[in-house]
């Protein structure tokens, strides 16, 4: 099944958590509550093409990011994850890396990277890089050598096989980007394997030389000062060596016109965990964090990615939470409880560069700004690490292309019109009301959505009721309130169909969070005295949200966050 469609599916049944939550403390400096830096940090994904363009060529760059560090600091960001900025033919906009140890000239130079890292460090912001571990570009020197002859030094660094017969690939596996996952190369009369585009050949992680080379890349960047990595498509590292055909999941075709397969033999193979333990060992030497694009849709699989004794990923992005695509207190409660009881530290993500933005997924078209605040009030106050996506804090919308000739994303080019691709969630950051939303003086690589007139950093900074001001308030609170930093998660009123409410309890302190997920006014009463608390003091609240005694009244899509006293 296509990964983007997976994203959009509301999760099916959840397996019950097997293991109780525990801290994971193999890194170095822990705070008084025993937490590592990344547990209390707020992460923010920057899509470098679209964030800020310092040299006015229409594409964002590293110096652009450096110029916005003060903005990020004020917003309350502690770590930025930069989507790939390495040399690349840009067939999949950087997810096709042709040199792991350099910066693509369109984004700047290594010196620019060093300056960014230095300036970020000055402000206490960590840099996380996107490590594309599953595949390289077909222009990487390893692949160019690999394809040159069957006896080339790097031949076995990729996955080459004979076809089943003339014009018949080795098996039925389909690429996530459409068509067969095998491409025939006439130079050596064999097929090579690619989970994604043909321009993204899969590395052969069964070859120890590949492992060594990739571990060296990890060390190279850690030594240069990065604080960790987001491991791209890490679930796809291994394939069945016997190349068994994948079972057909259901009849019919997916949006790209291919059979709908279950990725039984080319995804989530157990061997990936050995690699993760290796990558983690190295990360630990530098107090680094590993975030994983793991695509788990149940807790058993999620726990496996934390590893036995938390020796694999610190922050696997489970997507259980993000697959709740409607404002449903019951669904969120279920997913939060599951993730909260998993064996590692929770990670919460509501948007990224591969999925429709949260503003559109949850918005009802009439109360989108209020709903954006509800979502911020939710995932920024849960126990766990939130990973924001650029523009989410100002309520950016997904704006897909309307004509096929405008599509840039390879997925949209193949899938048009059913699958329009991911350009819509990658449009330029909206800084102000000026030309091109202040992103660039040149025509941006993707058009700026019309919403920049109403949703931009400059205007929203001046408006105390804006989505941006709300994010800033909640993030400020999150950084300073002990219960929000370290408190346990205690669900309240679990049968309420409209209001999602919970406590975060730390020692004798607690914070109450009440989120109205409906378009009508709601009142919720809580047995706080029974839990040993009395009185609620508002900390952050939207208009018409207030507490009287143990009762909270919330306007449509209202948010109330209050401090409880003993
Ligand atoms: C991941 C990335 C996505 C990319 C794919 C191939 O899913 O998030 O953007 O296209 O990997 O690298």
Automatic annotation (TrEMBL):
Its signal peptide is 1-23
Where in the numbering of this chain does the Glycosyl hydrolase family 13 catalytic domain appear?
45-426
**Which GO molecular function terms does the record list?**
alpha-1,4-glucosidase activity; alpha-amylase activity
What keywords were assigned to this record?
Glycosidase, Hydrolase, Signal
What's one Pfam family the UniProt record gives for this protein?
A: Malt_amylase_C
The ranges of region (Disordered) come to 400-425
Biological process according to GO: oligosaccharide catabolic process
The UniProt record lists the EC number as 3.2.1.20
Which InterPro entries does the UniProt record give? Answer: GH, GH13_cat_dom, Glyco_hydro_b, Malt_amylase-like_C, O16G_dom_2
Q: Which family does it belong to?
A: Belongs to the glycosyl hydrolase 13 family.
Protein name as catalogued: Putative alpha-glucosidase
Which organism is this entry from?
Candidatus Sulfotelmatobacter kueseliae
What taxonomic classification does the UniProt entry list for its organism? Bacteria, Pseudomonadati, Acidobacteriota, Terriglobia, Terriglobales
């Amino acid at each position: 099944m296509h990964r983007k469609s997976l994203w959009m599916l509301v999760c099916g049944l959840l397996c019950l958590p097997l293991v109780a939550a525990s801290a994971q403390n193999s890194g170095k400096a822990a705070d008084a509550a025993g937490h590592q830096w990344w547990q209390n940090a707020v992460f923010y994904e920057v899509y470098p093409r679209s964030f800020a363009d310092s040299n006015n060529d229409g594409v964002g760059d590293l110096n652009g990011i450096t110029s916005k560090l003060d903005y990020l600091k004020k917003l309350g960001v502690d770590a930025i994850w930069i989507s790939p900025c390495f040399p690349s033919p840009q067939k999949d906009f950087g997810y096709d890396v042709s040199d792991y140890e350099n910066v693509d000239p369109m984004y700047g130079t290594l010196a620019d990277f060093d300056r960014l890292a230095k300036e970020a460090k000055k402000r206490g912001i960590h840099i996380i890089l996107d490590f594309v571990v599953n595949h390289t570009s077909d222009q990487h020197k390893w692949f160019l050598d690999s394809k040159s002859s069957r006896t080339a030094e790097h031949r076995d660094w990729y996955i080459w096989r004979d076809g089943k017969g003339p014009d018949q690939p080795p098996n039925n596996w389909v690429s996530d980007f459409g068509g067969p996952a095998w491409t025939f190369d006439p130079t050596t009369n064999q097929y090579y394997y690619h989970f994604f585009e043909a321009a993204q050949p899969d590395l052969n992680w069964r070859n120890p030389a590949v492992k060594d080379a990739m571990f060296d890349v990890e060390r190279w960047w850690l030594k240069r000062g990065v604080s960790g990595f987001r491991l791209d498509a890490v679930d796809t590292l291994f394939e069945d060596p016997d190349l068994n055909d994948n079972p057909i999941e259901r009849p019919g075709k997916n949006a790209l016109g291919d059979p709908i397969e279950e990725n039984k033999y080319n995804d989530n193979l157990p061997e990936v965990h050995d690699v993760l333990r290796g990558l983690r060992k190295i990360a630990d030497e530098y107090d680094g964090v590993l975030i994983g694009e793991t695509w788990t849709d149940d807790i058993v699989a999620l726990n496996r990615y934390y590893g036995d004794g938390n020796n694999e990923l610190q922050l696997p992005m489970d997507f259980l939470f993000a697959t709740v695509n409607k404002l449903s207190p019951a669904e969120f409660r279920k997913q939060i409880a599951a993730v909260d009881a998993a064996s590692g530290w929770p990670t919460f993500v509501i948007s990224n560069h591969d999925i429709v933005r949260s503003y559109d997924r949850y918005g009802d078209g009439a109360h989108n700004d209020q709903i954006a605040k509800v979502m911020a009030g939710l995932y920024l106050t849960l126990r766990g690490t939130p990973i924001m996506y650029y523009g989410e804090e100002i309520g950016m919308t997904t704006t897909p292309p309307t004509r096929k000739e405008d599509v840039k994303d390879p997925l949209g080019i193949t899938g048009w019109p059913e699958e329009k691709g991911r350009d819509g969630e990658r449009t330029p950051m909206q800084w102000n009301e000026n030309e091109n939303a202040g992103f660039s003086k040149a025509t941006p690589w993707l058009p700026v959505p019309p919403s920049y007139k109403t949703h931009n950093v400059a205007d929203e900074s001046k408006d105390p009721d804006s989505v941006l001001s709300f994010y800033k308030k909640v993030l400020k609170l999150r950084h300073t309130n002990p219960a929000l930093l370290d408190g346990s998660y205690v669900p309240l009123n679990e049968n309420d169909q409209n209001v999602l409410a919970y406590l975060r309890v730390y020692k004798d302190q607690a914070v109450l969070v009440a989120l109205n997920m409906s378009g009508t006014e709601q009142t919720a009463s809580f047995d706080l005295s029974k839990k040993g608390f009395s009185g609620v003091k508002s900390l952050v609240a939207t208009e018409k949200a207030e507490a009287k005694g143990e009762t909270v009244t919330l306007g449509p899509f209202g948010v109330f966050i209050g401090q409880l006293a003993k």
